[in-house]
Structures are given as structure tokens and as C-alpha cells.
């Protein structure tokens, strides 16, 4: 993401002008845009014109529109963002108050105006525009007949292709059909990796599977690369990392991110830090539950006592349509930061974010044990 202009007033109102340069920038924009904001962007509009003879023709013109946002739709597979709202700046092509839908496009600037910019939104702009904070990981989870090719960034786990190939069962005395099915399956994975993995960007390609599927595929891939003189695969052989998983489904990436080899290779990335934090939370919940809280009520009480060491929140909570809900989580982050807590905002489209969502989307590791009275105990104490 490229920041072209930032104009934030003292009352925290204002606007920013940005250019999305990659698919992940569209995800950042989705998290920045909220209902009631104003968006200015260029769009293609069909304009009807009537000639002197009475015939009507339609021309497509690129126009700049400013809309008040009423609906936002994000396509997670295509990383496409569509925003609907009413036009608030009249021009000769679109009347004032008329509905229009804007599609944010790569390398096309847009201006986002808000009545109030909170610290979460400003931090996201900072992270999105810092190229050093980009994680570059691809992963392929597989089992016989099934493979899932994913791209892992700091904020998203995007499934680029799902491969399913029927493989005949082994029969005694003849394994020809079985071997042909396996080779056909491996060939499709090989082609998918070449199609979806940019080795100029990706630092690690994780191959995960149960049994020996990953080793057999890796041997097949390298043999094919040598046979076809595929220098991209041969030169990047060291980037492939083979790990064990329980299955070939996307969910197996949760195990992958806990693997010590992966943590070592990705030690400086945001996703690795989140994976370590959520692992530590579950361990603390098991060993010392008075230092591991989850759910807004308990975590906010821990913040009141200044007990939070690490606060974990999913970005989904900051996209809530209900303004008071957004504000209470932003306040929780501010209160935690005031006591020097480490705040981690997890992406709901990342594996670690999915795990945190199972814990209501907010959890905290405490600096010291904290025992909270239940509501019934508090009422009994007040009566006495």
C-alpha cells in the first residue's frame, strides 16, 4: 500500500489517500472502511446519450465519485472489494443521492474520509505501508487424492487452489492404475505450485502431509524439474520445507504454524509471533488458568487491574456494524497499551485468527494471577 496523503485534524476527523498495490492491500482497505465513511474513487459508468435522430447510445466513461458508504462486500477468494453507497458530490453523470457501487482496483488511488480515525485504523495504515512487515510464505497440505495450495501473509491465509484427484485403490498383482493416479495427482500439484508461487517473493514453501506423501511428491517434483530443465524449481529447492501434518486439509496449517522448524524460519514475521502467543495462551490456560483470560468481560476486568501482559484481539471485532461495540474494543486496546501491554491484532482470515475466534475473538495473557469474583459472589458480599 502506498500512502499519498494524510490529513488528520486535531479532533481525529480527516482523510487519507492511498493506492492499493497488491491483493493484501485490498484486505487492509476492507478493514479500514466502515459504514458511514466517505469514499472517493474512480469508476466506470455507463452514460446514455441521445442523438438528433433519436437513437440512444451508451458510452463507458471513467468518472470520480464520492459516496457515503452503506454496504461493504469482500470476496475472500478473489480479494475483491465492492462498496455501495449514495453519491454525495453531484456531477454531470451521477445525480446527488443516487446509488452507485465502487470496486476498488489495484494501482488506482482512493480517498477515505472518516468523522473519527481511531488508533486501530491508523496502525493498520502504518503496517500496510511498511514493506518490511510483509510475510512471504506458501503452503501445500496434501494427502492421497487431495491437496490445498495456500498463500500465507501476515493477515490472510488465502486458498489459491484445491486439487482433488480420484486415485484407484491398490490391487494385488497390479498397481499400474494406482501409480498412474498418483502421478497424475502429483503433476497437478506441481503445475499449481508453478502457477501460484512467485519465488521472487516467497521465502518458504511448506509441504505438509501425513505419511510419506510429501517426500514422494518432492522427489517427483525435483525429477520433473530436472527433466524439463525448470530452473525456477531447481534454483529454489532450498526454500521447500517438509513437515508432518495429520491431514491434507487447510486446517492442518494450524499444526504447521506450531512446528519448530516453521517458527525458526519465520521468527521475524507477525504470523509467527501470533502463533507463539496463542500457543502460550493455551499452555497457560492449562497450567495456570488465573493468568489466561478470554471473553470481553473477563479481559476488560483484567485491564482495569493493569494485569494484561499480552492482549490478543481479532480484527473482526473492529469491523462490527455496531459503533458502541467497535468503540469498547478500541477502548480495551487503549487501556491495555496504557499499562504497557503488548497488543496483537489477529487477522480473522489467518489460521491463528481462526483459533482466536474460537475464544470469542479476545484473550489475554496476564502478568500475574488474578482471581475474579463471580456475579453471585459479588451480590452475596454486598448483601452481607
UniProtKB/TrEMBL annotation:
InterPro entries: eFR1_2_sf (IPR042226), eRF1_2 (IPR005141), eRF1_3 (IPR005142), eRF1_Pelota-like_N (IPR005140), Pelota/DOM34_N (IPR038069), Pelota_N (IPR058547), Ribosomal_eL30-like_sf (IPR029064), TF_pelota (IPR004405). It is found in: Cytoplasm. One of its GO terms (molecular function) is metal ion binding. Keywords: Cytoplasm, Metal-binding. Its cofactor is a divalent metal cation. It comes from the Eukaryota. Its main location: cytoplasm. GO terms for biological process: nonfunctional rRNA decay; nuclear-transcribed mRNA catabolic process, no-go decay; nuclear-transcribed mRNA catabolic process, non-stop decay; ribosome disassembly; RNA surveillance. Residues 1-130 form the eRF1/Pelota-like N-terminal domain. One of its GO terms (cellular component) is cytoplasm. Component of the Dom34-Hbs1 complex, a complex that recognizes stalled ribosomes and triggers the No-Go Decay (NGD) pathway. In the Dom34-Hbs1 complex, dom34 recognizes ribosomes stalled at the 3' end of an mRNA and engages stalled ribosomes by destabilizing mRNA in the mRNA channel. Following ribosome-binding, the Dom34-Hbs1 complex promotes the disassembly of stalled ribosomes, followed by degradation of damaged mRNAs as part of the NGD pathway. Belongs to the eukaryotic release factor 1 family. Pelota subfamily. PANTHER family: PELOTA, PROTEIN PELOTA HOMOLOG. This is Protein DOM34 homolog. It comes from Coemansia brasiliensis.
Amino acid at each position: 500500500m502506498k500512502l499519498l496523503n494524510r490529513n488528520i485534524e486535531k479532533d481525529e476527523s480527516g482523510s487519507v489517500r492511498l493506492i492499493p498495490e497488491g491483493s493484501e492491500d485490498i484486505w487492509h482497505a476492507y478493514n479500514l472502511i466502515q459504514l458511514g465513511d466517505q469514499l472517493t474513487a474512480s469508476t466506470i459508468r455507463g452514460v446514455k446519450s441521445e442523438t438528433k435522430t433519436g437513437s440512444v447510445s451508451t458510452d463507458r466513461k471513467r468518472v470520480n465519485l464520492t459516496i457515503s458508504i452503506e454496504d461493504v462486500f469482500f470476496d475472500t477468494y478473489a480479494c475483491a472489494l465492492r462498496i455501495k453507497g449514495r453519491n454525495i458530490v453531484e456531477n454531470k453523470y451521477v445525480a446527488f443521492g443516487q446509488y452507485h457501487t465502487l470496486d476498488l482496483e489495484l494501482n488506482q488511488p482512493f480517498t477515505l474520509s472518516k468523522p473519527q480515525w481511531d488508533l486501530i485504523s491508523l496502525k493498520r495504515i502504518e503496517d500496510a505501508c511498511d514493506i518490511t512487515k510483509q510475510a512471504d510464505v506458501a503452503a501445500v497440505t496434501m494427502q492421497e487424492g487431495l491437496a490445498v495450495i495456500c498463500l500465507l501473509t501476515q493477515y490472510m491465509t488465502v486458498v489459491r487452489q484445491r486439487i482433488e484427484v480420484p486415485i484407484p485403490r491398490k490391487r494385488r498383482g497390479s498397481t499400474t492404475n494406482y501409480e498412474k493416479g498418483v502421478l497424475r495427482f502429483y503433476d497437478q500439484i506441481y503445475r499449481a505450485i508453478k502457477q501460484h508461487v512467485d519465488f521472487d517473493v516467497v521465502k518458504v514453501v511448506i509441504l505438509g502431509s501425513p505419511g510419506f506423501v510429501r517426500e514422494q511428491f518432492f522427489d517427483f517434483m525435483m525429477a520433473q524439474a530436472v527433466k524439463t530443465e525448470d530452473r525456477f524449481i531447481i534454483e529454489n529447492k532450498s526454500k521447500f520445507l517438509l513437515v508432518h501434518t495429520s491431514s491434507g486439509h487447510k486446517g492442518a496449517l494450524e499444526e504447521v504454524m506450531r512446528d519448530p522448524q516453521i517458527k525458526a524460519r519465520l521468527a521475524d514475521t507477525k504470523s509467527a509471533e501470533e502463533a507463539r502467543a496463542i500457543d502460550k495462551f493455551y499452555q497457560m490456560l492449562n497450567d495456570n488458568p488465573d493468568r489466561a483470560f478470554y471473553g470481553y468481560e473477563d479481559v476488560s476486568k483484567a485491564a482495569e487491574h493493569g494485569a494484561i501482559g499480552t492482549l490478543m484481539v481479532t480484527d473482526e471485532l473492529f469491523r462490527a456494524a455496531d459503533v458502541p461495540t467497535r468503540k469498547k474494543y478500541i477502548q480495551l486496546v487503549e487501556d491495555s497499551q496504557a499499562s504497557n501491554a503488548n497488543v496483537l491484532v489477529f487477522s480473522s482470515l489467518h489460521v491463528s485468527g481462526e483459533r482466536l475466534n474460537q475464544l470469542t475473538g479476545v484473550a489475554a495473557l496476564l502478568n500475574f494471577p488474578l482471581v475474579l469474583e463471580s456475579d453471585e459472589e459479588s451480590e452475596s458480599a454486598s448483601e452481607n
